[in-house]
Amino acid sequence: MKWTKALIQTLRDDPADAEIDSHKLMVRAGLMKKVAGGLYTYLPLGMRTLNKVQKIVREEMDRAGAQEIVMPILQPAELWKTSGRWESMGPGMFRLKDRAQHDYALSPTAEEMVTDVVKSIVSSYRQLPLTVYQIQWKFRDEIRPRFGLMRSKEFLMKDAYSFDTSLEAADASYMAMFNAYKKVFARCGLKAYPVEADTGDIGGKFSHEFHVLADAGEDGIAFCDGCGYAANLEKAERKVCASLTSGKDSASLLMEVIPTPGAKTIEQVSKFMGVPGSAFVKSLVYSVDGTPVMVCVPGDRDVNEVKLKHFLGAKKVELADYETVLRATGANAGSVGPVNPADATLKIVADQELKGAKGCIVGANKDDHHIKNVDLDRDAKIGDYGDLVIVRDGDICAKCGKPMVIKRGIEVGHVFKLGTKYTDAFKAVYKNDQLAEQVMVMGCYGIGVSRTMQAVIEQSHDKDGIVWPASVAPYQVCISLLDPDKEDVAKVAFDLEAALEAEGIDVIVDDRAERPGVKFKDADLIGFPVRVVVGGKGLANGGVEVKRRCDDKSKMKLVPVAEAAAAIKEALGGLA
Ligand code: ATP
Ligand code: MG
């Protein structure tokens, strides 16, 4: 490909709305162009990479025995009503009507539609197991579209769905996808870690997310070096150590109300009283499916709303509004606590670490007052204790007892065991060998194809630009032709291009009438894995210069023209 014929625009400046490096680089390297918030046009360079990622995904899906289909993006509301998700998906789903006023959704995912299709074709155990997949555009009305392709309104997803005769058989389908995912990400040059995850609104019993570690990641992940435990913070569990509770075990003193004027947060009250945050019980009032519930956690901890939701078996938990808090406790947020709330029937739940806590400080349910010397068993009516907090750095692994570390991750893929949530709703049944009808068992498996492409950049870039792995680079080789007007020099470049292309290597020849510095800067910005400099001076000195993007200048090699193709192949060979 000649650069002069390619639609390439590189930019000197970072786009104003880009917060993370990969987003800045995708725009500056001319891989994509913003249309509106969360919507992008993939330009030729970006499209080439997107296609390469898709090809890898397709090959690994096929190899794992999955069969490709494609389903409509426009999905009738009836399907979503059958599963109950027409309501539960809320405003995150784009909805529209046709001219006959029938309701539709733009597919945010496709469990409903695929179940409906498979149910209409599969009727016997002989047709199972079955895994189908598609690579299709998905739409989500994200609250905050940001970070370019990381969280966009329209994105490319590979979604696969498995159907099995039993839970055990479904485990095998799950593992086949799990292993295929490892291969997909490795082939994209990504280091992706499977971590235990919450199953979210999609339902189901068990799931893993694949995360690429990056400071810009939106998810927190707890890792244990001791046993390899890795879990999304939404799910991660810790072991409660006796030492954490014993600090609160002061003598059986009586409660004492103390004024704490103007101090609202634990930090402020702790400063005012001169005691550490860990001596406090943090109390928050939540609206749980519309009913107020007080949630108590150690003062230096945060509530994990996902765990809380599961613990209470609720559909929706959110912080209660100020009137509800006042009605339930008699005070405003900041002064509420588990001892004698105004509403004596108020349900109170607490984190397991607070079991048996004594000598602690709680809000007094009276504005600007706290109570000290509280013995939770003696003075409060805690309905239930559970694991309700977000784990943090240094917390003890529940599996092996070693301390955990918290890292940031980008979720590039997600595998779920779904059980019969959708097959029950759609009555997707098959006949077993006794001709008895049974419900199929499902799994679902997503890869954010467009997010993966950007995650590669987030993981592999430097101050000058992108450093593509060879497998998904838009072009693997860039020949910087320094004297495009000199016929003999140009011939060397184009002959080399032809020789490499004959071997299946993608090449772009920078034949622009630009200064060498401009060409090198652009090549580094776009991040072609191997750069070859072809110029009159170099040829006079004995050949062409070959350099890998990931190496510094000192590793540049001057190679005779006759050996150039072999040297380039060798340079590429060592790259992912
Ligand atoms: P997230 O937690 O990041 O919102 P999710 O758990 O809602 O993602 P899934 O329903 O599991 O996403 O979708 C499968 C994959 O699609 C995700 O692992 C992710 O890689 C990708 N994905 C999800 N939402 C977006 C988005 N708004 N933009 C780009 N990719 C996305
Ligand atoms: Mg997910």
Please name the defining characteristics of this protein.
binds adenosine-5'-triphosphate, 17 helices, BirA Bifunctional Protein, domain 2, Rossmann fold, YbaK protein, alpha+beta, 29% helix, binds magnesium ion, five-stranded mixed beta sheet, 576 residues, single chain
Walkthrough of the structure:
By secondary structure, the chain is α+β, with helices and mostly antiparallel strands. The chain folds into three domains: 286 residues, 2-Layer Sandwich (BirA Bifunctional Protein, domain 2); 137 residues, YbaK/aminoacyl-tRNA synthetase-associated domain (YbaK protein, Alpha-Beta Complex), CATH 3.90.960.10; 99 residues, 3-Layer(aba) Sandwich (Rossmann fold). It contains 17 helices and 33 strands. Strands 3, 7, 8, 9, 10, 11, 12, 23 and 26 form a nine-stranded mixed sheet that branches. The protein has a five-stranded mixed sheet with strand order 17-15-16-18-21. It has a five-stranded mixed sheet with strand order 30-29-31-32-33, sandwiched between helices. The longest helix has 21 residues. It binds adenosine-5'-triphosphate (ATP) and magnesium ion. Adenosine-5'-triphosphate binds next to strand 8, strand 23, strand 26 and helix 13.
